[in-house]
Amino acid sequence: MNDFIDRGEKRIVVIGGGFSGVAFAIQLVRRIQARVHVSIVEPKKLLGHGLAYSAVDPDHRLNGPINAMAIDPENTDELLEWCQARGIIENDLEAHVPSGHIFLRRFVIGEYLSYQAFSHANHEGFGSTVQHIRDVATDVQKKTNGFLVKTSSSGDLIADMVILATGNPTPALTKPFAPEHAEHPRIIADPLMAGCLDQIPIDARVLVVGTGLTALDQLSTLLRRGHIGKLAAVSRRGLRPRAQSPEIRGLAPPRISPIAIMDRIDGQIPDFIAREPVNVRRWCRALRQEISRVVRAGGSWHEPFDAIRDVVWKLWPQLPLTEQQRFLRKLRVFWDVHRFRTPPMNDDMVRQAEELGRVQYLTANVIGVTTGASVDPVQVELEARSGQMERSRHEFDFVINCTGLDSGGAASRNPVLVNLEQRGLLRRHGTGMGYDVSGKCEAIDSVGRADPNLRIIGPPTAGAFGDPLGAIYITAQVKRLMPSAIATLGCASHAPPQEPRALST
Ligand SMILES: Cc1cc2nc3c(=O)[nH]c(=O)nc-3n(C[C@H](O)[C@H](O)[C@H](O)COP(=O)(O)OP(=O)(O)OC[C@H]3O[C@@H](n4cnc5c(N)ncnc54)[C@H](O)[C@@H]3O)c2cc1C
What we know:
Blueprint: E1 10-15, H1 19-31, E2 36-41, H2 78-85, H3 106-119, E3 129-133, E4 137-143, E5 146-151, E6 156-159, E7 161-164, E8 187-188, E9 206-209, H4 213-224, E10 231-235, H5 246-249, H6 261-266, H7 271-274, H8 280-296, H9 302-309, H10 312-315, H11 321-339, H12 344-355, E11 359-363, E12 365-370, E13 378-386, E14 388-396, E15 398-401, H13 407-413, H14 415-422, E16 442-444, E17 450-456, H15 462-465, H16 471-488
Parallel strand pairs: 1-2, 1-7, 2-3, 7-17, 8-15, 9-10, 9-15, 10-11
Antiparallel strand pairs: 4-5, 5-6, 12-13, 13-14, 16-17
Helix pairs in contact: 1-3, 1-16, 4-12, 8-9
Bound molecules: flavin-adenine dinucleotide (FAD).
């Protein structure tokens, strides 16, 4: 095999062609001053769609404004310009909120990323190429001069560098659902699957288990279709994602001068946290005090919260593992409802339906789900704490699982991750969220060595950095690792242009 012979161009294999994989490929070919060949291994027909942007429903929108969606931090206006050139924003009147912010449909991002990947297939400049290999990567073997990436049906790929961008796990059923419920026609196990609600008649009694953003999406879909049957959403604590800030919704004029989000992510840890010791309890107390101060001065909790959110990648790694685990056990659920906010149009639609009694939110634990024949309704047992525990039985025609993504099970179902772990090239993060990586996203192997030629980006680094889950944080992560990745490839990089960025969130 002559595969490891130096052909004068570096070969990079990116495993996973969702937002992260495409953002990496594009930033790389734009920055590197050499000809490189990037192969993105992705089983989906189109690059860029991944889990989040494969949504087909027009009511499934981004939960942040358009300017929080750049794939290249040096070209933050690109998406807006791309949309304007195609009339996407004019033709989507509901995308606008009174402040002028735009909340795009999620599938637009999938289309945009596909377009970008395609446009970089043969990049001008140094002649780098970006190729989609429509396949699943099954294994990565380390060789003396690089890596051998095995695929299901496209043979072996040679790589000088491998980027793992395997992304989010898919939703899975957890107790009290039984594994066989995944196949039952009255249980929607994967709410992210296109068309999964199509079989629900408009007069059906529907229970949504979970009250987060996916539940909001599903309720929006049903309401838009004119659903007239009973709609209920249940969660243990009854917590719901919070609304966007008054400035973003246009309910109040901006209070602080707009700062580009990328500059905030790269910026300083806010003073009210920096002066505290490294301790979650002290940070929470400091945040509460700062929120009180800001609210007294006429602002909203979003300002201090966002000041922390944008630098979580600097704060989280400072915490000892036991503190991280405690946060995840006790506080994450509260963090998440503030962190992952609602698209205003979906929030409005569901709240109006709630006021009209068309949707009911319940606070209870689902303790039993019993299915019968495919024509029979689903029996659901709830336990609510109202002074004492109260149990009740309910009948629904359909139950939709919106309990979240299966972060624990993802790795054990993905062959490439299983094999990399078995070979000792990856080590699970102590929090159980993804893998250990260095500050530059180098994979840490089973004996603690960082491999600069094997990098992990996006959600599988959530344990290490706390929160590279939103698109802009992934873009920022890719930006941070890029100089060192290019240096590892033995190449030089372009100095990015230093133009001021005007957009803010
Ligand atoms: C439902 C949902 C809505 C979201 N909405 C927003 C939003 O509004 N705004 C925002 O900023 N963020 C949002 N996010 C966050 C989102 O995770 C990121 O924006 C981003 O999409 C993550 O991209 P990714 O490429 O890392 O992961 P994914 O999108 O999960 O893509 C990973 C890809 O890797 C592929 N893959 C996995 N294993 C292999 C293998 N072995 N071989 C080959 N390919 C493989 C998969 O097929 C998949 O396409 C949302 C997330 C979800 C799940």
